[in-house]
Design goal:
- Keywords: Signal.
- The protein contains 1 helix and 9 strands.
- It has 180 residues and is mainly β.
- It has one domain.
- Strands 1, 2, 3, 4, 5, 6, 7, 8 and 9 form a 9-stranded antiparallel sheet that branches.
- Strand 7 and strand 8 form a beta hairpin.
């Protein structure tokens, strides 16, 4: 046996761990519906208010929006892991209320969102934040459509289930989103 071959055999199986997946950016707030949608697929998704107000054909509008970061469910840290992207409207919605989803684009045969091709996302909630201070609070799950919406501008946006988005005190969480 040549000198050092025993050490080489021991060192061979050691591998460096795969790098952690980075948070996904290009999530935007739509100033028409107050929902969060993914802008990284080349389109603007489908907004429930897209026609009429400005004559557009249902695209989300991100004027005035920051670039929000969403963590994937398998990343370290606490958070609610029921969030998915809808391939029809590009919005973020919770699978925690499967009986109560409504996609503005019509979605599945029952009118619900569809997470085919989506990652599973983790959102921080107050008061149990683990990624430090900062971020923008006042993001809620709508009890009517299960979509994530921003409630910090007064009006609650437009819900695809009709009227404005609604959150119910004591049900669900107030989420905090971070920006790039």
């Amino acid at each position: 046996m040549a000198a050092g071959t025993g050490l080489a055999a021991l060192a061979a199986p050691l591998m460096t761990p795969a790098p952690a997946r980075a948070a996904q950016h290009l999530w935007r707030w739509c100033f028409q519906c107050s929902g969060l949608w993914f802008s990284g697929n080349g389109g603007n998704g489908y907004c429930p208010l897209g026609t009429g107000l400005f004559g557009w054909d249902h695209p989300h509008q991100s004027s005035g929006s920051g670039d929000y970061l969403l963590r994937f469910a398998d990343e370290p840290g606490a958070g609610q892991i029921t969030w998915r992207w809808c391939r029809f409207c590009s919005g973020l919605w919770s699978t925690g209320r499967p009986d109560n989803t409504r996609c503005p684009a019509g979605g599945l045969a029952d009118g619900g969102h569809d997470f085919w091709g989506s990652g599973q996302y983790k959102l921080e909630a107050l008061p149990n934040m683990t990624n430090g201070h900062g971020g923008q609070a006042q993001w809620f799950m709508c009890r009517k459509c299960a979509g994530l919406f921003f409630a910090g501008n007064g009006p609650q946006g437009v819900c695809p289930a009709g009227g404005a988005h609604e959150h119910q005190a004591g049900i669900g969480f107030e989420h905090v989103l971070r920006q790039v």
